[in-house]
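Reviewer 2 asked us to include a model.

Predict the structure of this chain.
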Amino acid sequence: RNHRIKIDRSIRITFVLAALFMACVVTAQQKAADTNLNNGDSIVGSSFVTRIQKMGKAEAVRSIETFKKGRDAIKQEELIEEIKQTTLKAKAHLKSGVDTFGISAELKNTNAWIAIAGDGVFTNTGTAQTYRNLVTTSKILVELLKRTNNRKTQVDLFEKALVNYRYKIDSLNADTVLYDFPSDSVVLMRYVQKILVLAGAIGPADSALKQAVINVNTLQIRIDSLVNKLNSSL
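Predicted model (C-alpha coordinates):
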Protein backbone atom coordinates (compact mmCIF):
# COMPACT_ATOMS: atom_id res chain seq x y z
CA ARG A 1 0.00 0.00 0.00
CA ASN A 2 2.78 2.34 0.93
CA HIS A 3 4.44 1.43 -2.32
CA ARG A 4 1.27 2.33 -4.31
CA ILE A 5 1.02 5.66 -2.45
CA LYS A 6 4.60 6.47 -3.46
CA ILE A 7 3.79 5.57 -7.10
CA ASP A 8 0.64 7.72 -7.03
CA ARG A 9 2.60 10.63 -5.63
CA SER A 10 5.28 10.19 -8.29
CA ILE A 11 2.61 10.17 -11.04
CA ARG A 12 0.98 13.33 -9.66
CA ILE A 13 4.32 15.12 -9.44
CA THR A 14 5.07 14.05 -13.01
CA PHE A 15 1.72 15.38 -14.22
CA VAL A 16 2.25 18.65 -12.34
CA LEU A 17 5.71 19.07 -13.81
CA ALA A 18 4.39 18.22 -17.27
CA ALA A 19 1.57 20.73 -16.86
CA LEU A 20 4.01 23.42 -15.73
CA PHE A 21 6.27 22.66 -18.69
CA MET A 22 3.38 22.88 -21.16
CA ALA A 23 2.26 26.12 -19.57
CA CYS A 24 5.75 27.55 -19.99
CA VAL A 25 5.88 26.42 -23.61
CA VAL A 26 2.47 27.93 -24.39
CA THR A 27 3.44 31.18 -22.67
CA ALA A 28 6.68 31.37 -24.59
CA GLN A 29 4.90 30.69 -27.86
CA GLN A 30 2.31 33.34 -27.10
CA LYS A 31 5.01 35.85 -26.30
CA ALA A 32 6.79 34.98 -29.50
CA ALA A 33 3.56 35.34 -31.45
CA ASP A 34 2.86 38.66 -29.79
CA THR A 35 6.39 39.78 -30.55
CA ASN A 36 6.08 38.75 -34.18
CA LEU A 37 2.71 40.48 -34.39
CA ASN A 38 4.12 43.63 -32.86
CA ASN A 39 7.10 43.50 -35.19
CA GLY A 40 4.74 43.09 -38.12
CA ASP A 41 2.71 46.06 -36.95
CA SER A 42 5.93 48.06 -36.56
CA ILE A 43 7.08 47.17 -40.07
CA VAL A 44 3.67 48.02 -41.52
CA GLY A 45 3.57 51.30 -39.58
CA SER A 46 7.08 52.24 -40.66
CA SER A 47 6.24 51.58 -44.31
CA PHE A 48 3.06 53.65 -44.06
CA VAL A 49 4.89 56.61 -42.51
CA THR A 50 7.56 56.43 -45.20
CA ARG A 51 4.95 56.54 -47.94
CA ILE A 52 3.21 59.50 -46.31
CA GLN A 53 6.51 61.36 -45.96
CA LYS A 54 7.32 60.76 -49.63
CA MET A 55 3.88 61.98 -50.65
CA GLY A 56 4.33 65.08 -48.49
CA LYS A 57 7.70 65.86 -50.01
CA ALA A 58 6.39 65.37 -53.54
CA GLU A 59 3.42 67.63 -52.84
CA ALA A 60 5.73 70.25 -51.33
CA VAL A 61 7.86 70.20 -54.49
CA ARG A 62 4.77 70.58 -56.68
CA SER A 63 3.44 73.42 -54.52
CA ILE A 64 6.77 75.26 -54.65
CA GLU A 65 6.95 74.83 -58.43
CA THR A 66 3.38 76.05 -58.85
CA PHE A 67 4.09 79.05 -56.66
CA LYS A 68 7.28 79.86 -58.60
CA LYS A 69 5.46 79.68 -61.93
CA GLY A 70 2.72 81.95 -60.65
CA ARG A 71 5.23 84.40 -59.22
CA ASP A 72 7.25 84.44 -62.45
CA ALA A 73 4.09 85.01 -64.50
CA ILE A 74 3.20 88.03 -62.37
CA LYS A 75 6.75 89.36 -62.62
CA GLN A 76 6.72 88.93 -66.41
CA GLU A 77 3.48 90.89 -66.67
CA GLU A 78 4.97 93.66 -64.54
CA LEU A 79 8.15 93.77 -66.63
CA ILE A 80 6.28 93.90 -69.92
CA GLU A 81 4.06 96.71 -68.68
CA GLU A 82 7.01 98.64 -67.25
CA ILE A 83 8.95 98.32 -70.52
CA LYS A 84 5.92 99.57 -72.41
CA GLN A 85 5.32 102.54 -70.10
CA THR A 86 9.02 103.52 -69.99
CA THR A 87 9.26 103.44 -73.77
CA LEU A 88 6.13 105.57 -74.13
CA LYS A 89 7.55 108.11 -71.64
CA ALA A 90 10.80 108.22 -73.60
CA LYS A 91 8.83 108.80 -76.80
CA ALA A 92 6.91 111.66 -75.21
CA HIS A 93 10.17 113.13 -73.89
CA LEU A 94 11.60 113.06 -77.40
CA LYS A 95 8.67 115.09 -78.73
CA SER A 96 8.91 117.69 -75.96
CA GLY A 97 12.71 117.75 -75.89
CA VAL A 98 15.26 120.12 -77.39
CA ASP A 99 15.24 121.19 -81.00
CA THR A 100 18.54 119.70 -82.14
CA PHE A 101 18.22 121.20 -85.64
CA GLY A 102 17.48 124.65 -84.24
CA ILE A 103 20.40 124.47 -81.80
CA SER A 104 22.68 123.27 -84.56
CA ALA A 105 21.76 126.33 -86.64
CA GLU A 106 22.30 128.55 -83.61
CA LEU A 107 25.81 127.15 -83.09
CA LYS A 108 26.59 127.96 -86.72
CA ASN A 109 25.43 131.56 -86.19
CA THR A 110 27.49 131.81 -83.01
CA ASN A 111 30.62 130.85 -84.91
CA ALA A 112 29.79 133.57 -87.45
CA TRP A 113 29.44 136.18 -84.65
CA ILE A 114 32.76 135.09 -83.16
CA ALA A 115 34.40 135.73 -86.52
CA ILE A 116 32.79 139.20 -86.79
CA ALA A 117 33.62 140.14 -83.20
CA GLY A 118 37.18 138.98 -83.62
CA ASP A 119 37.81 140.97 -86.77
CA GLY A 120 40.56 143.43 -85.99
CA VAL A 121 41.33 141.61 -82.72
CA PHE A 122 42.05 138.02 -83.68
CA THR A 123 42.10 138.49 -87.45
CA ASN A 124 43.08 141.41 -89.68
CA THR A 125 44.94 142.95 -86.77
CA GLY A 126 46.79 146.24 -87.21
CA THR A 127 49.80 147.59 -85.39
CA ALA A 128 47.65 148.56 -82.40
CA GLN A 129 44.28 147.64 -80.94
CA THR A 130 42.04 150.24 -79.35
CA TYR A 131 40.47 149.76 -75.92
CA ARG A 132 37.04 150.25 -77.46
CA ASN A 133 37.58 147.39 -79.90
CA LEU A 134 38.70 145.07 -77.09
CA VAL A 135 35.78 146.01 -74.84
CA THR A 136 33.23 145.61 -77.64
CA THR A 137 34.64 142.22 -78.66
CA SER A 138 34.73 141.08 -75.03
CA LYS A 139 31.08 142.01 -74.43
CA ILE A 140 29.99 140.16 -77.56
CA LEU A 141 31.98 137.05 -76.57
CA VAL A 142 30.60 137.11 -73.01
CA GLU A 143 27.03 137.22 -74.32
CA LEU A 144 27.74 134.44 -76.83
CA LEU A 145 29.31 132.31 -74.08
CA LYS A 146 26.30 132.88 -71.82
CA ARG A 147 23.89 131.73 -74.52
CA THR A 148 26.03 128.75 -75.45
CA ASN A 149 26.35 127.65 -71.81
CA ASN A 150 22.56 127.85 -71.47
CA ARG A 151 22.22 125.62 -74.51
CA LYS A 152 24.85 123.28 -73.08
CA THR A 153 22.89 122.92 -69.83
CA GLN A 154 19.67 122.29 -71.76
CA VAL A 155 21.24 119.69 -74.05
CA ASP A 156 23.10 117.96 -71.20
CA LEU A 157 19.90 117.55 -69.20
CA PHE A 158 18.08 116.25 -72.26
CA GLU A 159 20.86 113.77 -72.99
CA LYS A 160 20.91 112.60 -69.37
CA ALA A 161 17.17 111.91 -69.44
CA LEU A 162 17.50 109.96 -72.70
CA VAL A 163 20.36 107.87 -71.32
CA ASN A 164 18.35 107.13 -68.16
CA TYR A 165 15.41 105.93 -70.26
CA ARG A 166 17.76 103.83 -72.40
CA TYR A 167 19.43 102.33 -69.33
CA LYS A 168 16.11 101.53 -67.64
CA ILE A 169 14.72 99.83 -70.74
CA ASP A 170 17.90 97.79 -71.17
CA SER A 171 17.83 96.79 -67.49
CA LEU A 172 14.22 95.63 -67.75
CA ASN A 173 14.99 93.67 -70.91
CA ALA A 174 17.96 92.02 -69.20
CA ASP A 175 15.84 90.54 -66.38
CA THR A 176 16.18 86.74 -66.64
CA VAL A 177 12.58 86.23 -65.49
CA LEU A 178 11.46 87.67 -68.82
CA TYR A 179 13.07 84.70 -70.59
CA ASP A 180 11.83 81.98 -68.24
CA PHE A 181 9.38 80.55 -70.77
CA PRO A 182 6.38 78.51 -69.55
CA SER A 183 6.51 74.73 -70.02
CA ASP A 184 2.86 74.51 -71.05
CA SER A 185 2.62 74.90 -74.83
CA VAL A 186 -0.65 76.86 -74.75
CA VAL A 187 0.63 79.28 -72.13
CA LEU A 188 3.93 79.56 -74.00
CA MET A 189 2.25 80.54 -77.27
CA ARG A 190 0.13 83.13 -75.48
CA TYR A 191 3.23 84.59 -73.86
CA VAL A 192 5.21 84.68 -77.11
CA GLN A 193 2.33 86.47 -78.85
CA LYS A 194 2.28 89.04 -76.07
CA ILE A 195 6.03 89.63 -76.50
CA LEU A 196 5.64 90.03 -80.27
CA VAL A 197 2.83 92.56 -79.84
CA LEU A 198 4.96 94.50 -77.36
CA ALA A 199 7.96 94.47 -79.71
CA GLY A 200 5.84 95.77 -82.57
CA ALA A 201 4.41 98.56 -80.41
CA ILE A 202 7.64 99.84 -78.86
CA GLY A 203 10.09 98.98 -81.67
CA PRO A 204 9.85 102.31 -83.57
CA ALA A 205 10.03 104.36 -80.37
CA ASP A 206 13.05 102.38 -79.20
CA SER A 207 14.85 103.00 -82.51
CA ALA A 208 14.03 106.71 -82.32
CA LEU A 209 15.42 106.82 -78.79
CA LYS A 210 18.71 105.26 -79.86
CA GLN A 211 19.07 107.68 -82.77
CA ALA A 212 18.22 110.64 -80.55
CA VAL A 213 21.01 109.70 -78.13
CA ILE A 214 23.48 109.58 -81.03
CA ASN A 215 22.32 112.97 -82.36
CA VAL A 216 22.48 114.63 -78.96
CA ASN A 217 25.95 113.25 -78.27
CA THR A 218 27.15 114.75 -81.56
CA LEU A 219 25.55 118.06 -80.63
CA GLN A 220 27.22 117.99 -77.21
CA ILE A 221 30.64 117.67 -78.82
CA ARG A 222 29.97 120.76 -80.97
CA ILE A 223 28.72 122.78 -78.00
CA ASP A 224 31.66 121.80 -75.79
CA SER A 225 34.06 122.74 -78.57
CA LEU A 226 32.36 126.13 -78.98
CA VAL A 227 32.42 126.82 -75.23
CA ASN A 228 36.15 126.09 -75.15
CA LYS A 229 36.68 128.40 -78.14
CA LEU A 230 34.78 131.27 -76.47
CA ASN A 231 36.62 130.86 -73.17
CA SER A 232 39.94 130.84 -75.00
CA SER A 233 38.99 133.97 -76.95
CA LEU A 234 38.00 135.79 -73.77
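The CA atoms of residues 83 and 170 lie 9 Å apart. The first helix runs from residue 2 to 95. We have added this to the supplementary material.
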